[in-house]
Predict the structure.
Amino acid sequence: MAIRATEVTRKHLHLMDAESRALLAWQSQDSGNSPRIRFTESVEDSMHLNTLRGGAIIISASGMCDAGRIKFHLKYNLPRPESSILITGFQAAGTLGRRLVDGARTVRLFGEEVPVRARIYTIGGLSAHADQAGLFHWLGGFRAPPTSTYVVHGEASTALGFAETIRERLGWKVEAPEPSSSVLLA
């Protein structure tokens, strides 16, 4: 998906600001001074990344580090003190990403205890969805309220508070279900 999103972005460079266009132009030139970017689509290519011991930056998409290839990259790089892991965006409680951000000394991956010797860095504010104001703007576009609305994202206290705010502002029927609960949608 990230590769396809990058392709779409590159087709619409005219929508970017001048600084972003200049950065992409610099990255695209083959001068020896720009970074060499290689996209990996196959599982084999991704597995090869786990054998690298020199300088490399692996960019992997998995919001909370709980699924996908990122878990393999973490398994092979967390024990390495020369590695750095940069986590961007919100990490929900109970997720691997949150445990790393909170300073876990070991984590369990694929049934094994893995020591965390890599440096963990975070950049907040890069969530891929709207904030509360943006969500209210979107909700305000409904001609009629939905029969039921469920707030299922964020920490429990935040979800409960947002559900209450929707009830107060919009008068909608809204719930913030407990984790692992289910609702029959018919």
The first strand starts at residue 84 and ends at 88. The chain has three domains: 1-39, 40-127, 132-175. The chain is about 35% helix and 10% strand.
